[in-house]
Amino acid sequence: MSRLELVLCLICAVSITAGQIMLKFAAKEMLNTRSYLDLATSPLIYASFAVYGLAMVLWLYILTRVPLSLAYPFVIMGSGLVFVFAFLIFGEVLTNRQYIGLVIMLVGTIVVYA
User: Fold this and answer.
1) How many domains does the chain have?
2) Which residues contact 72 (CB under 8 A, 6 or more apart)?
3) Closest by alpha carbon to 75, among 19, 12, 5?
4) Residues sharing a CB contact under 8 Å with residue 69, sequence separation 6 or more, in sequence order
5) For the segment 43-99, what is each residue's pLDDT rounded down to a tens digit?
6) Which of 6, 13, 41, 82 has its CA 20 to 30 A from that of 55?
7) CB contact at 8 A, 66 and 73
8) Containing structural domain, residue 54
């Protein structure tokens, strides 16, 4: 994997994570609305869809250049980032199992690229 491909994979992982965080903000916003129509007109929803859409276009590009078995661990890394940001931004409490899972994700990614 070239440096450019590595950077693109990282951008994709971070973009997918950002999309998840934005959707969580939108979900919290939904608690303050009276209807799903209000949520459907939320700029945050459209922004999160745009981030996801661009991430998927980037992912398709990556898959034309990088074997799936090498690219996919970055998606797993993005899932780990969601845990971290859920804790940092939303104050979500992580269980011991979640911490162990994060470590396994990290170790697995390191093993794939070692």
Assistant:
1) 1
2) none
3) 12
4) 112
5) 888 999 999 899 999 999 999 999 998 998 888 888 888 988 999 999 999 899 999
6) 41
7) no
8) 3-113
